[in-house]
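User: I'll paste a sequence; please echo it back and then give the predicted structure.

Assistant: Echoing your sequence first, then the prediction.
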Amino acid sequence: MFPDAKRKIAYDKFHVARWLNRTIDQVRRGEHRQLHAAGDNRVRRSKYQWIRNPHSMNRRRWNDFRALRGSTLATARAWALKETAKGRWTYVRRGWAERARKARLG
């Protein structure tokens, strides 16, 4: 609806993080339904582990979270993508971010 919208819309860290956390929670809820039906309760009551900032976790919480984040769950993949996206905010120059994106894509 807006001509040249990509250049005119500002994306701030807070709103992008909120969107990513909501997406992770949607993935987690859907995956929980599937796993629960199969008798697997691994992701039960894990919402805040996925959306909490890893730097604010104490060692015990981080170790408790290890099995989940290292699993093959779709939620673990979504979490890893969120953590990668968080790293994008540290780039000072656009060119640096673009090179990093291209390097990751191969």
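The mean pLDDT is 87. The radius of gyration is 17 Å.
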